[in-house]
């Protein structure tokens, strides 16, 4: 329980949460970006 309290109440805990959320957001964005580009390339070559 102390770990969760530290995670959401300290500055380094909040920065860790922000970095984790940012990295997950980047992963989703890159996946969507690459899938879209692959579909565009496939449509262009067909």
How many distinct beta strands? 0
Mean pLDDT: 96
One letter per element, helices H and strands E, the order comes to HH
Sheet with the most strands?
Answer: none
Percent range for helical residues? over 70%
Number of domains: 1
The end-to-end distance, rounded to whole angstroms, is 56 Å
Inertia-based shape? rod-shaped
Unreliable spans are none
Strand content: under 5%
**Number of helical runs?**
2
Which structural class best describes the helix and strand composition? mainly alpha
Rg over CA atoms:
18 Å
How would you portray this structure in words?
- The protein has 46 residues and is an all-alpha fold.
- The chain has one domain.
- Helices cover 93% and strands 0% of the residues.
- α1 crosses α2.
- The mean pLDDT is 96.
Short characterization:
The chain has 46 residues and is mainly α.
List keywords for this structure.
about 45 residues, mainly alpha, 2 helices, rod-shaped
Q: Strands, helices and their partners?
A:
Elements (H helix, E strand, L loop, with lengths): L1 H8 L1 H35 L1
Helix pairs in contact: 1-2
């Amino acid at each position: 329980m102390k770990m969760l309290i530290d995670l959401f109440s300290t500055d380094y805990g909040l920065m860790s949460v922000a970095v984790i959320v940012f990295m997950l957001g980047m992963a989703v964005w890159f996946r969507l970006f690459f899938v879209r580009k692959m579909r565009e390339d496939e449509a262009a070559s067909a």
